[in-house]
Every structure is written in C-alpha cells, then in structure tokens.
Protein 1
Amino acid sequence: DAGVTQSPTHLIKTRGQQVTLRCSPKSGHDTVSWYQQALGQGPQFIFQYYEEEERQRGNFPDRFSGHQFPNYSSELNVNALLLGDSALYLCASGYRYWPGELFFGEGSRLTVL
Amino acid sequence: GENVEQHPSTLSVQEGDSAVIKCTYSDSASNYFPWYKQELGKRPQLIIDIRSNVGEKKDQRIAVTLNKTAKHFSLHITETQPEDSAVYFCAARTPEFGEKLTFGTGTRLTIIP
C-alpha cells in the first residue's frame, strides 16, 4: 500500500520563477492538504482540496495556488518566487469522513536563490 | 484562529527515563489533537492522536492526555530508547476549519545512551 508520494524531492529556483509540486495521496484517501515547513518550525497550513475544489485556505498570498485532479492527486503552484518561499513543502492526505487524521509525504524541498 | 504553544523546545533525557512534552491550545472548539514525530530530513509521522471525547490514550510506550478544561494536552514517552530521538510536534484541529491542523513549534528530544 503506497503512502503519500511527492515529486520532485528537491529543486532549486531563482527569484521570480514559478514552481509546480505534485502529490499523490495514500490509497483510499480523497482529501489533500498542503503545508509549508520552514527550517526549524512547525508546518504551516496552505490549503486543502477535496472534490477538486479548494475548501480551506491558510494565510498565504494568491501566489500560492493549487489543483486537485479526478484521481485525487494534487498540484501546488507558486508564482513569482521569493527568497522566503524556500522551505519544505509537505502534502498530507486524509479521508473526508474521518477529518483530521492526516498522513504526510516526504516533502519537496524548495530552495530559492 | 487557533494558536498552539509547545514546551519545552528542547529536551534531553537519559535512555530508559520518561519524557513529557506539553501543549496548550486557544480554541475551545478544537476537538482533535495529533502528535507527529519528525526525524531529520523525513516526513512528519503520526504517532498517536486523541479526540476531545477521550481523556487519555495509550499505545505501548506512548500516551497522550487531554485536559479540555485547561485546554492542554501532553505526550508521555516511557522507557525511552535512542530511536525516540527526533523532533515532536503537537497539533490541534478545529472543525470550523476542516482538516486544517495548527502545529506547535516542536520539541527536539534527545535520548542520551
């Protein structure tokens, strides 16, 4: 049973560029949430998707956008990258009828130069 | 919104001794409290959780207690082993915000052999 998978694992971008991160949820899960984890800090909620719609959003600017596909996989897009966007981006999947219990992927580490 | 405070930020215990990590939350409507273990460079891994209709939950050497009146919950690890060394995060979920988890700032636990 595959867990939550994310790609790419590492990437380097320069300021102003755009990035797309991908996530496949754990088998049987239908919700996907994205979190940003800066070095030495706890994960910060970006947004959550289910039924292909954004359902909840944290305090992140519109430069952060996402998408969920019919197979429940998801993408996180960040435009106009800033140095401060350097972080570990974590995807977490869950089951909408058992809210809160989330399983995280290994993350995508983004470095913005 | 919800605010979660976690203490201590670092904790060193002798192998075989017990470790206790404490968290407080601000929103009395929060009803789900997971604990995650994150090893260096790895994903946060759910180790135990508790819902607001339960005061205590135990899983082998790990236990979590919840005091709804005081709005705090604690992680207890007994008979600590070197492999328990990691960063531990508490989190809280408020139903109003779907699956959003608000995380504490983390506790770096070091087990001294």
Protein 2
Amino acid sequence: EPEVTQTPSHQVTQMGQEVILRCVPISNHLYFYWYRQILGQKVEFLVSFYNNEISEKSEIFDDQFSVERPDGSNFTLKIRSTKLEDSAMYFCASTAGGSETQYFGPGTRLLVL
Amino acid sequence: AQTVTQSQPEMSVQEAETVTLSCTYDTSESDYYLFWYKQPPSRQMILVIRQEAYKQQNATENRFSVNFQKAAKSFSLKISDSQLGDAAMYFCAYRSFGSGGYQKVTFGTGTKLQVIP
C-alpha cells in the first residue's frame, strides 16, 4: 500500500540554523500539507499546498517557514532560522483530491538546542 | 472556526473489553468529514475510521465503530474486543467538505488509551 514518507526521522539542530524537512507524498496525490505537534500538545495545521502554491497557512506559518515542491516527488518544509519553540514533531500529509482523506507520514522529530 | 473537543485525556480498558472514546465538535457547516486517528508510541498518525456527515449510517471498520450524532455534534469511537496493540493516543479530527483539497484537518487534544492485560 502506498504511503507518505518523511526524512529524516530525527533532526537535531542549533538555534538559528536552517533546516529542511523532506516528504515524499503518495504518488498520485495533488494536495500536500504540513502539520506540527509540540510534545504533549495537539496536532496543528501549518500549511496546505496545491498546484505549486500555498492554498492556506496558519498564523504559525510565519516568514521563517517556506514550502517547496522542487521536483515531481518531493515536498519540503524549510525553517530559515530555527528557534527553541520550533522543537516539535512535523508531519507531512497528502490527499488525492477534495473529498479524500489526508494520509500522514511518520513524522520528523525536530529538536532545536 | 471549527473546534474539536475531547474531554477524556486518558482512558483505560481491560483487554478484550469494549471502550468508548468521546468527541464533540463545533461547526456551522452542514457537510464535513470526521476522523479518528491513532498515534502509537512511534508517533505516526494512522487513520482508524472516517465518517461523512451526509451519511446517516455510522461507519465501522472491523472492531472500530463510531456513534455519529449530527444534531448533537458528537462523534464517539467504540473499540470492541480491545487488544494490547490498541494502546495509543487517539485523536478526533474534523475536515470541511469543500470542493478543493486544501482543507485543513482540525484535531482534538487527544485521548490516551491504556489497555490492561
């Protein structure tokens, strides 16, 4: 069964450094998302992406964040200058269309020191 | 904005017994989707079951079933014959229907389910 994959599974970085989290959505899916989950808290929406542009973003998704689909398979989330509060689990999700369930990847655990 | 509330931070159930996890939501929309996701210690989000609001029949997936009460905006998950592998955090989630695929999923705060051998 096709699944969403994410790399790396864990990333440790120093505050102020740039990180890129990578996702490979399910191959025939068209809509892509990033969510994050701070430890012990609920999953929060960051951004949705369709047709090579952002469809919606939350207030969390400020100028430090950007997303890109650099090729036909990868979907990336970049944090330009990480802060301690960016430490969280980041989930990528994808869906085939408007009425479809979002399928989540296994997550990337980001720790900012 | 839609909100999802899970009032039970933790629940426990004996192996082979039945447990029900509660969820309420608030929305002004008439068409939407509701989901239960499971998050085991590995922290991957796994879809358990999905319900379309326009369907009156409650969704079932093997040992998992829901009690969807649209008027009451309630969406509970029943797990029958609980197994040790069911131990996880369970998130109730809401998604607008809409014509585009960009609708975000709104999650509740989760219920941690413990299964006692």
Protein 3
Amino acid sequence: EADIYQTPRYLVIGTGKKITLECSQTMGHDKMYWYQQDPGMELHLIHYSYGVNSTEKGDLSSESTVSRIRTEHFPLTLESARPSHTSQYLCASSEYKGAGSTGELFFGEGSRLTVL
Amino acid sequence: AQKVTQAQTEISVVEKEDVTLDCVYETRDTTYYLFWYKQPPSGELVFLIRRNSFDEQNEISGRYSWNFQKSTSSFNFTITASQVVDSAVYFCALSAAQKLVFGQGTRLTINP
C-alpha cells in the first residue's frame, strides 16, 4: 500500500490568491515529482527533486515553485493563481536506484485545482 | 530523446472481450525501464507493472498480460475477459537517463 498523501483533494479559489498544494510520503523515498494533468489526459512533469535541498524544473514550464526541506515533504506553491492554472496536480515519489534507473513511482490521489 | 506513443486514444469493448493496448517507445539508451499505470475515474494513478530492458519475458498477472518486444520497441498490454471495473485511462511510461516519460494515455471503456 503506497503511503503518499496530497492535500487538499479539491480546491476552488479566486484569481490572484496564493495557494500551496501539500505532498507527503512516509516511504523514505529520495525522489519526488509533481505532474500536471487535465483529467484523463497526458501527464506533464513540472518539478522534481532528487532529495533534500534539490529541486529541478520539469519538461513543462510552470509558474509554480517547489521546495524540499525535508525528505518526506514536497509542497508546490502558486504565488498568484490564474484560471490557466486550473488542472489536476499529481505528486509522486520513487526510490532512487542509481544512474539510469527509476523505481516504481507511487502517486498520490491528486489535487484538483479550479481557479475562477 | 525519449518518447512514448500510445496510438489508441480511446477503445470501447463489450464486457468479456479481450482487449490489447498498444505502446511503442523510443530511446537510444540500452538500459531503460517500462511501466504501465491505470488511472480510474477517481483520478489516482495505480502502478501495474515495471520491466527492465534486459528482461523480455512476457508476464501474466491474472487477467492482465504484457508483451515486451525490443525488436519492435513495443510493450503492449492485454486484458483478457474484460470487466466493467477495467474501465480507466491507461498510461505507458518509459524511464531512461534519469527521465520518466509518459504516453498520451488510452481511455478504455468496458460496456456491460
């Protein structure tokens, strides 16, 4: 049973608000990821981290930022939300298995964000 | 560059039919990993299988089976005797050179 949690599951907010999507995992995984996805559509990697104090931008440009101060925690922040940010955000983690390898990704249940 | 193509955008079959979801990948790396994930209407992604590039043995898990063929760069997924609960979006993914790339997904609908 995967132990990765995202909050909130659903969020509806107005334009211009600052929001933080929380992601926590209890598996001690070094690698964590944020994907953006319109329901049932392609997943786009927006941020990832190899470990504490490591953050990298993904393939899809995003106005969001992330931080990794603790191994288990990888929050995503939008300073000023806009309607174009409306989407589902999926957090994932995996065990680091060395160069050229990715362990199984465990995904959270997702945070569905709607910006009015 | 890594790329995954799931040419079937949507598939609809009647319950108990067998169905195969296609996945074709591109990579120049000799060491890589392939995955399948299921995304039911609830939204979470559920891991189904992970295979490495050195293991071409086909795998069967209950009604699910996977056919990995390096010669055609394909990693196809077959559901035998499909059930309504199999309805979901299925994603194929490729991991190589520290990057994980997903295909566009195939929406599978199983009708009663």
Protein 4
Amino acid sequence: DTGVSQDPRHKITKRGQNVTFRCDPISEHNRLYWYRQTLGQGPEFLTYFQNEAQLEKSRLLSDRFSAERPKGSFSTLEIQRTEQGDSAMYLCASSFGLGGETQYFGPGTRLLVL
Amino acid sequence: GIQVEQSPPDLILQEGANSTLRCNFSDSVNNLQWFHQNPWGQLINLFYIPSGTKQNGRLSATTVATERYSLLYISSSQTTDSGVYFCAVDKDFGNEKLTFGTGTRLTIIP
C-alpha cells in the first residue's frame, strides 16, 4: 500500500494558461475525491468518482474545471484559463467501499497563478 | 449544508502538556474523521470515529453523535504534534463529500 500520490507537487503558471494535475489513488480503491484548500481554510469538496463515474460535482467546480477518471484508476483535474483565484492546494483522496469509509489523502498539488 | 465548528482556533502549549480539541457539527453524520495537517500540507488520518471512543498511543477521540460533537485528546504533547487539526464530517450514507471545519492550529513549544 503505497498511499495516494499526486503530480506535480508544485505548479506555477501565468494567468490564462491551462494546467492539469494527476492523482493516483491507493490500489483497488474504487472512490476518488478532489478537494481544494485555500490559505487558512479547511479543504473544500470539488468532485468525486466511483470507479470511472463522476457522481457529484460541487458548485465550486466552474466550467473551467474538468475532472476525469477514464479507467477507474488514476484521475486528472484540468483547469482551463487559470485565474489568480485558482491559486490553492489541490488535494486528492481515495477510499474503498460503498459509503462512509475512511478517506486517505495525497500530499497535494500547490498551484500558484501569477 | 452541514456546519462544522472547531475550537479553539489556536492553542499554544508547552511540551508535555495535555490538550482537548473540540468539533461541533450541526446535523447527524455518517462519517467523522480527525486529521493532522503537517507543515508540508499533508493530511494525516488520525481517527475514523462517527461514534464511540478510540485510542491510538497518546491520542484518543470520542464522538457523542446524539449531542453532535467530537473531542480529540492529545496527551504528553511533543513538538511533532504541532500543526493544524481538522475535523471532517459526511452527512449522509452515499453522500461522500467530507465537510471540514476551519481547524485548530496547535503549537507545541519545547
């Protein structure tokens, strides 16, 4: 059990550019979650997948954000036309089961939009 | 949505002291987890505790679901305990988004 991994760990980009983050969940975990954390706040839910199906999206996930989990394993989160307000830590978590299980978090990707 | 409040917001203690962190939530929950976020941002699972009491070394937690609160106890604090402690809840079975509190920042002074 190698834990949840995320890549890259840090990303600096200019406003208007597109960025893509990757998350590899714990092996055999069927659920995968994305959260966003801004400075001084707790993480906020963005979206989650059960296998390859995206089951819920937060209103925080504007049209510029898209997430995929094409084969039910790793997931990508893409932000198009980045804005300075997108600067945050993007956290991925995974769990196994049908609901109410422990979520295990990755180290996060810290995004800075200049 | 469900509201999660943590207290105190900040806590500064001498090494060796004990502490109690509180989490209040506004509705019944299916899932409650305590996390420690280290200075590098990693969220480390401490407890999965929607009800009852658990202990792990110097840490223990109690959730009284009927009264909608949870407590995290840290005994004999060490400098490595410093960081932010988050409580997170999930309201409904099958509704999997964790709602986090704003955290308690714990600083342990040598």
